[in-house]
Each structure stands twice: as structure tokens, then as C-alpha cells.
Specification:
The complex is a heterodimer of chains A (about 140) and B (about 70).
Chain A (H helix, E strand, L loop, with lengths): L3 E6 L4 H16 L3 E6 L1 H5 L19 H12 L5 H10 L3 E5 H6 L14 E3 L1 H9 L3 E4 L1
Parallel strand pairs in A: 1-2, 1-5, 2-3, 3-4
Chain B lengths: L2 E6 L6 H12 L5 E6 L2 H13 L3 E8 L2 E7 L1
Parallel strand pairs in B: 1-2
Antiparallel strand pairs in B: 2-4, 3-4
The chains are: A alpha/beta (about 140), B alpha+beta (about 70).
Pfam families (chain A): DrsE_2
Protein name (chain A): NAD(FAD)-dependent dehydrogenase
InterPro entries (chain A): DsrE2-like, DsrEFH-like
Chain lengths: ~140, ~70
């Protein structure tokens, strides 16, 4: 232990959420700590029932593209975002929700999936997490 | 000293790695983990993770599409 990965999840797009969670789970699996800092469009995915609701970042095609990609993902047995979050939490990953985004978007803690959120914070929280991280990403 | 089996056949990235880590966390020191899977990259990456976690790799075998990796905590 001692090594850490800290990822800012700025995008609410489904494919980008996959990237963030796969990298974070990989870090945990390989013995690192991991923190996900959800801000802006990413924070919307922490709303109750919002996890799987993101569009595709490209070729969303009013939902048709997402349906096709989801179909391919099911066929190749890719884990759901729900499962990736559950695994992330089980392996000790930390989820931080951005308070400023909550204010801007009028989101209260009760609107969010509070059970998976470890902390509510601002930039200082991110910096504290990131300053001793050997991996930091902005997704 | 228990022997723990983890079956991740048909699972893809990052599930084999994650399931290995989950099982390792629950295992006691000295326990042997036998992971059986089909995801090609995980065959390389599980031993990489084991090294990073200072867990001993007892063996890696391939039979057809399936591989078996044995680790000792």
C-alpha cells in the first residue's frame, strides 16, 4: 500500500464512467488506494438511480448508439457500472462528491446515492487526495 | 491452510483482477488461491498484480482457452 490513484470524474458520459471505474478498480486490485472525485456532469451519475443514465460521449444518436454499445457490452460480458461501483467500494475505494456542483445544480445530499459517498468536499479535498497520489487523471 | 477457488471464466476486464483481489483480501496468510479464467490479458496481469502485492505465484497453466493461476498469500 502507500501508492494511490485519484481520478476526477467530470464527465457524466457512460463510456467515460467506465474508463474511470475500470482504472480505479484496477488500481485497487493491484494494491493501490483509489479515490474518485465526482464533479459537474460526473456528479449527476451519483444521483439516485443515475449511475447507468449517462449518454455515450460519441455516436449517442439519441440513445440508439448507446443501445447498440450496451448490446455489444452485454454480449462480451462487460460488468455493469453498478457492479463496478460495488466492487470499488468493497475493495476500499473512496467516493467524494463535489459540494460546489451540488450548489450550482441545486442537488441536496438526499438526492444522491448517499450510501456510496464517503465524503463531500471541495478543491482542497481533491488536492489532499492528489498530492500523495502517483496517478491522477481527469476524465 | 485453505485452498480457495475463484472462477472467472467468461469474465472480462477488470473483473478477473478485481475478483482475485477480493479473494486475496479474505484469504489468510498461507492460503492458496486457484483462479481459473479465459480473459487473455488477465493471464499476464494477475501475476503482475501478485508481484505488486508481494503474493507468491505458484504457477500459470494454459489448457485450450482456459488458464489456471495459482497464488499463495
Amino acid at each position: 500500500m502507500g501508492e494511490k490513484a485519484t481520478i476526477i470524474v467530470h464527465s457524466g458520459d457512460m463510456d467515460k464512467l467506465y474508463s474511470a471505474l475500470i482504472v480505479a478498480n484496477g488500481a485497487l486490485a493491484m494494491g493501490m488506494e483509489a479515490s474518485l472525485y465526482f464533479t459537474f456532469w460526473g456528479l449527476l451519475r451519483l444521483k439516485k438511480g443515475g449511475l447507468e443514465k449517462g449518454p455515450l460521449s460519441k455516436m449517442h444518436l439519441l440513445g440508439l448508439g448507446k443501445r447498440m454499445i450496451k448490446g455489444r457490452m452485454d454480449k462480451t460480458n462487460v460488468a455493469s457500472l453498478e457492479r463496478l461501483v460495488a466492487d470499488f467500494k468493497e475493495l476500499g475505494g473512496k467516493i467524494i462528491a463535489c459540494e460546489m456542483t451540488m450548489e450550482i445544480m441545486g442537488i441536496a445530499p438526499k438526492d444522491l446515492d448517499e450510501g456510496i459517498i464517503d465524503a463531500y468536499g471541495a478543491v482542497g479535498t481533491y488536492i489532499q487526495e492528489a498530492r500523495d497520489s502517483s496517478i491522477t487523471l481527469f476524465i | 491452510m485453505a485452498e480457495i477457488k475463484v472462477d472467472v471464466r467468461g469474465e472480462t476486464c477488470p473483473v478477473p483482477l478485481v475478483e482475485m483481489r477480493k479473494a486475496l483480501r479474505k484469504a489468510a496468510l498461507g492460503d492458496v488461491l486457484e483462479i481459473i479464467g479465459t480473459h487473455p490479458a488477465s493471464k499476464k496481469e494477475i501475476p503482475m498484480a501478485a508481484d505488486a502485492l508481494s503474493v507468491k505465484v505458484l504457477g500459470v497453466e494454459q489448457a485450450g482457452d482456459e488458464w489456471v493461476i495459482r497464488l499463495q498469500k
